[in-house]
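Structure tokens please, single chain.
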Amino acid sequence: MNHKILLLSSMVLMVAACSPEHEDLRQWMEQTQKDAQKHIQPFEQPTVNPSVTYIPPKTIGLNAFSAKRLNEGLAGNNAPNINRPKEVLEAFSLENMKYVGSFISGNQKTGYIEIDGHVYTVKTGNYVGQNFGKITSIMPDKLTITEVIENADGNWAFRNAELLLDNSKDNQSIKTDN
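Here you go.
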């Protein structure tokens, strides 16, 4: 008999556990899902605006992005040879040099440049100054130098300079053609 009572009481407990105890929670979940679906807006296809074609204005004067200018810079027209060994007088600017004389022996012309109390011997073809200057002629009254400088466009250009004969200790003689 005890077995029957125990079995019957366990069945009653099982049936009681299946009772709709959480029914209010289920109803609230269903209602919330329905309300949420009401507030969802349908997906709208976005409108695509046609792209605008950019037309650059006409340039007046120099154009930093000109293909011609960039190609000239790459070609290195008139560029100095930076791989050659530097000569001693390329460490000094022309402003610090004084042409103090020349010597002619047959066809050989030699010039003399003074820098900081030291006299240096130069010949045609020697490099002087900090702008890749090359001595092009030696005359009794002046040295003619052709410098290679970089202009505003990034291209290399030639510029002539002259060291005039310094007859006095106070006279500084440099003449450049721009």
